[in-house]
Specification:
alpha/beta, Aspartate Aminotransferase, domain 1, 2 domains, four-stranded mixed beta sheet, 14 helices, globular, binds pyridoxal-5'-phosphate, aminotransferase
């Protein structure tokens, strides 16, 4: 414990205080488990916000990373490398997208999509210069850069950081009528999460996305789905859009695209939207580098080869049912899709953070969100037995 306290104190002194982590200092991870400085084992029920869907330190991704790191890591896009084209090919085969733009962080993918969609609006849709509008949803989370926090509705995320870029309209999430009303001839895109993750795993009403898709098609508006958290198996499908049988015009991936080894993100689109970008108009020093591409290729490969998406589809409902069966006066409701789960507590329970602290004491790491919600998102390699063990702990900690 002394080492943990020393590390925490040092972080407190030297680091910006933009996070409030639980009191645990991790040194090692393997599969669904992580280990602290004292060797104590925890079941990871956050998966680095779904960046570690494939499990911690997946040996095949590790191998791909080490092999590539010994050969070539960064060329910049001034030259070709032997990994980028294969990354494009494999992600296109998997998702059916026609064009790919490689970036690094999720926020960069979002920013890149906004740029491409605006340019598409001017050059293809014919919107008047600087008049393009993008519709977004209240309680969205798309990242932390200036452009993105400007259309956040979270006072913590945007407070004190203005002035912000114009060109965004905010509507309620899950309300297709609101989208219909908000669309104008200048609307170029609708940017939305399939399930709002940071907002507390908010699942929209059945049929919402089918209507959204229709409205976007009818009005020549690009549907931009931010699948950075919901994508790559988390909800029991490769992409969450598949639950409603729709296809976005632009899909954003990040997080698990590298299995947690390295920041890798991508914008996927039909050929029209990313087709507007010409040499010199957008870029990234690290985007599309051979190390990132080799890691992402392995991360995608293990996801499908090892049946992780099917596992999420099979065990997500089992985990949810188990959570629903917990007898507790603290629990208001549970919800989830695949292995993206949440437990809502009554306000009288005293806040989710307290329970996350006790869960940690009992060997489970989970994250509170929005005061009264515990988010549960283990790596997709979790087994039925591990879920049973976890449910026992959840039952004990949430009892009362
Ligand atoms: C995490 C996340 C982002 C931002 O990704 P970063 O890599 O942290 O920049 C964007 N959108 C969604 C839905 C996310 O969950």
């Amino acid at each position: 414990m002394a080492l943990t306290e020393d590390l925490i104190a040092l972080e407190q002194t030297l680091g910006a205080h933009n996070y409030k982590p639980l009191d645990v200092a991790l040194v090692r991870g393997e599969g669904v488990f992580v280990y602290d400085v004292d060797g104590k084992q925890y079941l990871d029920c956050l998966s680095a916000y779904s960046a570690v869907n494939q499990g911690h330190c997946h040996p095949k991704i590790l191998q791909a990373m080490v092999e590539q790191a010994k050969k070539l890591t960064l060329t910049s896009r001034a030259f070709h490398n032997d990994q980028l084209a294969l990354f494009y090919q494999e992600i296109a085969d998997l998702t059916g997208s026609h064009k790919v733009l490689p970036m690094n962080t999720g926020a960069e993918a979002v920013e890149s999509a906004i740029k491409a969609v605006r340019k598409w609006g001017y050059e293809v849709k014919g919107v008047e210069k600087d008049k393009a509008e993008i519709i977004v949803c209240a309680n969205n989370f798309h990242g932390r850069t200036m452009g993105i926090v400007g259309f956040s509705t979270d006072p913590d995320a945007r407070g004190g950081f203005g002035p912000f870029a114009p060109g965004f309209r905010i509507i309620p999430f899950g309300d297709a009528d609101a989208l219909e009303k908000a669309i104008t001839p200048n609307t170029v895109g609708f940017l939305v999460e399939p399930i709002q993750g940071e907002a507390g795993v908010i699942i929209p009403p059945e049929g919402y996305f089918r209507r959204v898709r229709q409205l976007c098609t009818d009005n020549n508006v690009t549907l931009i789905l931010d699948e950075i958290q919901t994508g790559l198996g988390r909800t029991g499908k490769l992409l969450a859009e598949q639950h409603e049988g729709i296809e976005a015009d632009v899909t954003l991936l990040g997080k698990a695209l590298s299995g947690g080894f390295y920041p890798v993100s991508a914008v996927l689109s039909n050929s029209e939207v990313l087709g507007v970008l010409q040499p010199g108009q957008h870029g990234s020093t690290f985007g599309g580098n051979p190390l990132a591409c080799a890691v992402a290729r392995a991360a995608l490969r293990v996801l499908t080869e090892e049946g992780m998406i099917e596992n999420a589809a099979a065990l997500g409902p089992y985990f949810l049912e188990g959570l629903a069966g917990i007898k507790s006066n603290h629990i208001r409701s549970v919800r989830g899709r695949g292995l993206m789960l949440a437990v809502d507590l009554h306000p009288e329970a005293g806040g989710a953070r307290k329970f996350c602290h006790t869960l940690k004491e009992h060997g489970i790491l989970a994250k509170d969100t929005h005061t009264d919600t515990i988010r549960i998102a283990p790596p997709l390699v979790i087994t039925k037995k591990q879920i049973d063990d976890a449910l026992e702990v959840f039952g004990k900690v949430l009892a009362g």
